[in-house]
Amino acid sequence: KEGVYLEIQTTLYDKNDHLIFVRDVTRLHLLEKMRKDFVANASHELKTPLTVIKGYLETLSMFADSLPKSMQKGIVNMSEQSERMEQLIEDLLLLSRLESDDKREENQWHKISDLTQSIQKAIEPILTGEHTLIIDIPDDARLYGSYKELYSAFSNLIVNAVKYSPDGGNIEIKWESSDLNGVFSIKDSGLGIDPRYIPRLTERFFRVDKGRGSKTGGTGLGLAIVKHVLLHHDAKLQIRSQPNYGSTFSCHFPVSRTRTDSIQTISPTH
Ligand code: ADP
What we know:
Subcellular location: Cell membrane
Mean pLDDT: 91
Number of strands: 10
EC number: 2.7.13.3
Catalytic activity: ATP + protein L-histidine = ADP + protein N-phospho-L-histidine
GO molecular function: kinase activity
Helix content: 40-55%
Low-confidence stretches: none
Protein name: histidine kinase
Structural class: alpha+beta
Largest sheet: 5 strands, mixed
Bound molecules: adenosine-5'-diphosphate
Radius of gyration: 22 Å
Strand content: 15-25%
Distance between the termini: 28 Å
């Protein structure tokens, strides 16, 4: 029947017999859809009032010099928090789009070095000079997918590597391909992550240290975004980390989505 969702599982009962379990999950699907719609609508509705608040704050900061010190501090604080809220809304909207079945940007072949170069340019303001980006990506390496989605996944991982290496150090960004797959990896020598938290990192709003997260301006949605983007690209995320020594986040793409030659004529059927 249309609109009915069933979950079917089979198990071998004995040599010749199978047990078939059928579960009606229509209600679960409806609830999930309601959750997604609510988050998408609420995030969208929050955009307009925030734009108005930010506008007035900008005007206020022009006159900040004539205000008492405590009010100047308040304006700086409000500006920082409204930037944070804007980032949160943007991330929620992006996650909603990634979760919905709406039409997606068409998949195309992209030079991986183009992606990393524009990310590098965009993150210049957060590079304090303490960090050294070591980028090792063959110029002819290409990936088949959505530029916007890949950009947000890779930039979230690179920004995290910077954010969670407060003492600076090297950040290695690499592309390696073999007959089996293509791997995009980011290695930092920062704070690292306790192994017991690793399985939870891609949950929405999960942060190892909430206090640390609010200081570094995180939303807790970055790795959830990475997970969804990789799912769209038939890829998997691998996380290896050692507290106080650093972390490596690797995105494993199937070989059908990777090329290393400069001319591409056939597209995979994704
Ligand atoms: P956030 O916006 O808080 O950075 P993410 O979803 O991107 O959210 O990451 C979730 C949590 O995973 C972070 O709060 C942080 O605790 C941890 N994390 C992510 N990347 C790294 C990293 N490179 N090094 C150490 N911890 C990390």
